[in-house]
Design goal:
heterodimer, A: about 230 residues, alpha/beta, six-stranded mixed beta sheet, 7 helices, B: about 850 residues, alpha+beta, seven-stranded mixed beta sheet, globular
């Protein structure tokens, strides 16, 4: 079992308003799965992904990652688990404007104590695989949206994570580039990487083997498709 | 890894040049100010450290307590105490006395005026200045010898070697001296100024005065520098405890009776370690002007304030702009960076800023050091900055600034939560808005204090120099040197011929110029009063008061038709002649009326007062003038007596017509050369003389002005950048206001009004601080401007200035955003 959420609660409090973003969510994800999370705006998809990615901490409930209960872990302990296991892909790519393509991808290896020469090799390899090697010294602003998302995918996979979390990875792309990204995710999943993806698009959710529908912070349906 | 950090930093700066410029410029100026003060402090604290026996080296100084006059510290003592102290105190190893006088080197026709030091045989055993030629042990024991500094030797004798060569000197009389030693030029960091050093000359220091005493024996003045070394291991306690009694044993009763004080009270001796002379000796006017801890503290304080303003800019701009770096932080965190790593990334960025600024600061220091040296009258070398301790201090300061300025931004930036930035695409909370506002207030407090301080320093310095002194001070110049041998007794003839010169309106003789300080006084016996009263004395000719537009308020002026000229006893007078009673007529000022106890001017006229050991000489008061400040405007006006004493006509005061003062001056010089060939003269404008007396304050004021200007400039740059950021953040709000019907004008007013509140708060905080600081500084002055009125005026000026400045700073951004179409504003996010 890769991920086990039990009674996961997330409540946002301001001075006089309390908003329940996640309400007693129970989800299990095993290694090698491809899971799509769907639901209308404000249903808690992003919150769920943030908690799965250890970018946010739950208000209550238990989160077991690789059989470790991580609910009470400190920020730096979480950062450590995250960097060893999780790669992220975002709707808005989130490349750093001041770093070039190579340096953006290298970021994912920077905090792993990997020697510079090995970093260079691995970044070069992944750039070749994603077809962006000739763009290595370009700045993000010089790239098209599809190319930027390829850089983002390259950055997500260069550290060879167990889990890829993708937040609306196709949201800012046209249909051709969107499909390209979905194919890449499928390929990664076929190679054994667990993929959890938040999406609005039913068509892209079709790529996943399991679809979780959220509504008002609760899991309403889980559709498991037969193995192909 | 650092490569990756710095790649982001440098490209960020490249894309935000204004931000980078403001930070680097501000920090550079702040650091440069601090480097200057570090150099200055290091210079000021290294005085005389080159003297090998510094830890055992002392100087006797005297606190002069003339009755009726505030105590004055003088760096000298008696000539007579050398033998007395050496015999009485076993602790003393070697003792030396010397005197400083002006003389002339006669290699050219008129001679060149130089500073002569007349010292005894121990001079260079006590003050162990390095010699280039000759033997310090014997250089001063050769009669007719002379020791020159390298500079003097080169100036008057050309290239060396110099030993045994002759130089013709004039002081009282002309003679040849043989060079017995050459001193290595004395560094700027020494309180000692020696140019030409001669053995004590019995024809000068050994000449008896009218009382039959030589300068070496005299007790009525402190004319000799006294230095001594203590034996190894000895201490000063016994000397300090018994010195007063010892002086009283020898001090003549005659002088003590004149002032009603014991000798040890009249000239109170104290011991000053030579190591402390430059910064701590209370006596100014030694061989060179001394330093002052106050200047170090005040200048250091301002430097630190400038640095603080620059650091605040750095902090505020970095946190305000954290939104721009939020994505970078968030992505790095997602990639596994922990908070500590990011904290240090931003700290190292801040350090990088500081180090870059240090390099610029060094260039700035190199550029302004010559001007700074000129202003402070120092010779500080820029290369000093590369000494290991100085480098360490500069680097240490830079690192400290980098770390301190970086802490807050680094905490804010490293604390950004990635989930908010990356997923929701929401703007980050740049939560420290309140802190930023507080820091901006702090900047304005500093700026406002500096504005108030600068304004009042200038106002007070101007007032001190230009206030009404009670006489007509327009177009006056003073010709000095009429007491010299070459002039003989032609003072009045010279005056009469000067009066004939075109452009000269009037001329009159006196012993001192109108703005000169207090010097000699008479001790008067007033019938009915137990104590004798000291009254300072001015000799004037009959036209002096008319020329100065001074009138009597009672009695009459000194008048040639009366017997108003005092009789002088010649130097070679017999004892009997000396004791013959004299009679004279005098005019006094109102301060003297009070001091002598006559109450009113009318009451004083006709009164007779007495001088002399036996009260045998009588002076009749024939007139009273009001309290006209005919002395140095720096000091409180004392009791003065005016008389016509022709032996004391040492200066000619000239009123010129004002069209061509320089031409009048040259005509006077030509006349002087014609009448007294070979005798040097010295001409000075009255305004110059007064300005010189306030040189210290003028320098302080100018430095304060320059640094205040810099501080305000840096603060404004910071506010400009900060406002561009805050106004941009409020674009949406302003757009909505406009949609709701607000006009551009109301929006600009709204923005300016919101800015005015912190500026006003800052001024309210600044006022008491400014009041306190200025009141302290005003203590330097005897005559102060009306503080409440001027302070209020300056406070209003500071408030208006800071408000207008802040408005002008943000107006650009405010107007731009207020005039933009609301739809642009709303689309902005």
């Amino acid at each position: 079992m890769l991920i086990q959420l039990k009674n996961m609660m997330k409540v946002y409090r301001t001075e006089d308003v309390e908003t329940t973003a996640l309400n007693a969510v129970n989800i299990d994800i095993t290694k090698g799965e491809f899971v799509a999370i769907m639901g209308p705006s404000g249903c808690g998809k992003s919150t769920l992904l943030n908690i799965l990615g250890m970018l946010d901490t739950p208000s209550d409930g238990s989160y077991t990652f690789l059989d470790e209960e991580i609910g009470k872990y400190s920020e730096s302990q979480l950062a450590d688990i995250r960097k060893r296991n999780i790669g992220f892909i975002f709707q808005s790519f989130n490349l750093i404007d001041e770093l070039n393509v190579f340096e953006n991808i290298e970021l994912a290896l920077l905090y792993h104590n990997i020697p510079a020469s090995e970093r260079r090799d691995r970044v070069t390899k992944v750039m070749e695989r994603m077809g962006i090697a000739h763009r290595a010294s370009h700045m993000p602003a010089q790239l098209s949206g599809g190319q930027q998302q390829r850089v983002a995918v390259a950055r997500a996979i260069v550290a060879e994570p167990n889990l890829i979390l993708a937040a609306e990875p196709t949201g800012n792309l046209d249909s051709v580039h969107g499909e390209e990204v979905m194919n890449m995710l499928t390929e990664l999943n076929n190679a054994g990487t667990t993929v959890v993806m938040v999406t609005h698009s039913p068509a892209h959710a079709e790529y996943a083997r399991r679809v979780i529908n959220l509504f008002d912070g609760q899991v309403v349906t889980e559709n498991l498709k037969a193995a192909e | 890894m650092f490569q990756n950090y710095f790649a982001a930093t440098l490209r960020h700066l490249r894309d935000h040049k204004l931000y980078a410029l403001i930070n680097v410029l501000g920090l550079s100026i702040g650091l440069a100010s601090c480097l200057l003060i570090i150099l200055f402090v290091r210079h000021e604290t290294s005085y005389d450290t080159f003297l090998p026996n510094l830890d055992r080296l002392y100087r006797f100084e005297s606190m002069v307590n003339i009755p009726g006059r505030p105590p004055v510290a003088v760096p000298r003592g008696y000539g007579a105490t050398k033998e007395i102290f050496t015999e009485a105190f076993d602790e003393i190893e070697t003792y030396t006395i010397f005197q400083s006088r002006f003389g002339r080197v006669m290699n050219e026709a008129d001679g060149i005026s130089e500073n002569f030091i007349y010292g005894d045989e121990n001079l260079f055993k006590v003050l162990q200045l390095p010699f280039i030629e000759g033997d310090p042990e014997t250089a001063m024991s050769t009669p007719g010898g002379v020791v020159l500094t390298e500079e003097m030797a080169l100036k008057h004798l050309g290239e060396g070697p110099y030993l045994g060569r002759e130089i013709t000197l004039y002081d009282q009389y002309e003679r040849n001296h043989k060079v017995t030693g050459i001193l290595k030029d004395i560094p700027d960091t020494s309180h000692i100024v020696f140019d030409i050093v001669l053995p004590i000359d019995m024809q000068i220091q050994g000449q008896p005065d009218p009382n039959g005493q030589t300068a070496l024996e005299r007790w009525n003045g402190v004319a000799f520098y006294n230095y001594f070394t203590l034996k190894e291991g000895a201490n000063l306690t016994r000397i300090e405890n018994t010195i007063d009694d010892l002086i009283d044993q020898y001090f003549p009763d005659r002088i003590a009776a004149l002032v009603n004080k014991k000798g040890s009270e009249l000239f109170k001796h104290y011991i000053m370690p030579v190591a402390d002379i430059h910064l701590k000796s209370p006596s100014n006017g030694g061989m060179k002007p001394s330093g002052s801890m106050t200047i170090i503290y005040s200048f250091g304080g301002i430097a630190i304030m400038i640095l603080a303003i620059a650091s605040i800019n750095f902090m505020n701009l970095a946190t305000a702009r954290s939104t721009l770096r939020a994505r970078e932080v968030a992505v790095r965190k997602v990639m596994g960076a922990n908070r500590g790593q990011l904290f240090w990334q931003f700290q190292s960025e801040s350090l990088l800023f500081a180090v870059i600024s240090l390099l610029f600061a060094m260039l700035l220091v190199a550029g302004v050091l010559p001007a700074f040296n000129g202003f402070t009258n120092r010779e500080i070398s820029f290369l000093t900055i590369f000494e290991p301790t100085m480098l360490a201090a500069s680097l240490g300061l830079t690192i400290l600034v980098g770390l301190v300025a970086g802490i807050h931004p680094s905490i804010v930036l490293s604390g950004i939560r990635p989930s908010r930035v990356l997923m929701a695409n929401k703007s980050v909370n740049t939560g420290s808005a309140k802190l930023r506002a507080g820091l901006v207030i702090l900047q304005f407090v500093i700026s406002s204090v500096l504005v108030i301080g600068t304004g009042l320093v200038f106002a007070q310095t101007w007032y001190a120099q230009n206030r009404d002194l009670g006489y007509n001070r327009d177009n006056l110049m003073v010709i000095r040197g009429l007491g010299q041998e070459g002039v003989g007794s032609s003072q009045e003839a010279f005056r009469d011929r000067v009066r004939q010169l075109p452009g000269v309106e009037d001329a009159s003789l006196s012993n001192f110029g109108p703005s000169d300080g207090d010097n000699t006084g008479y001790s008067y016996k007033v019938p009915g009063l137990e104590q004798r009263i000291i009254v300072f004395f001015r000799s004037i000719d009959f036209d002096y008061f008319d020329m100065m537009d001074v009138d009597v308020i009672a009695g009459r002026k000194l008048d040639p038709n009366f017997n108003d000229i005092i009789t002088n006893v010649p130097n070679d007078a017999t004892e009997e002649e000396r004791n013959t009673p004299t009679k004279s007529n005098i005019v006094i000022n109102m301060a003297a009326v009070k001091a002598l106890g006559f109450g009113t001017a009318e009451n004083a006229v006709g009164k007779v007062i007495f001088t002399g050991d036996e009260n045998q000489n009588s002076s009749t008061i024939v007139g009273v003038i009001p309290n006209v400040h005919l002395t140095s405007p720096r000091v409180e006006l004392n009791a003065y007596v005016y008389m016509v004493d022709k032996a004391n006509f040492l200066n000619l005061n000239v009123r010129y017509s004002g069209e061509n003062p320089e031409e009048v001056g040259l005509a006077i010089d030509r006349l002087w050369q014609e009448m007294f060939p070979g005798t040097p003269s010295f001409r000075q404008y009255l305004d110059e003389n007064i300005a010189n007396q306030f040189r210290g304050e003028t320098i302080q004021g100018t430095l304060l002005g320059v640094f205040s200007g810099l501080a305000i400039l840096i603060a404004s740059m910071g506010l400009f950048a900060l406002s561009s950021f805050t106004v941009a953040r409020r674009t949406k709000e302003i757009g909505l206001r406009k949609v709701m019907g607000a006009s551009s004008k109301t929006i600009v007013i709204l923005l300016l009004r919101q800015l005015s509140t912190p500026v006003l708060i800052a001024n309210i905080i600044a006022l008491p601080i400014g009041w306190y600081a200025i009141s302290q500084w005003m203590q330097n002055f005897q005559y102060r401007l009306d503080m409440p009125i001027y302070f209020s005026a300056m406070a209003v000026a500071a408030i208006v200035f800071t408000l207008v400045l802040s408005w002008a700073t943000v107006a650009h951004h405010a107007i731009r955003v207020a005039q933009s179409k609301p739809i642009n504003a709303l689309r902005y996010e």
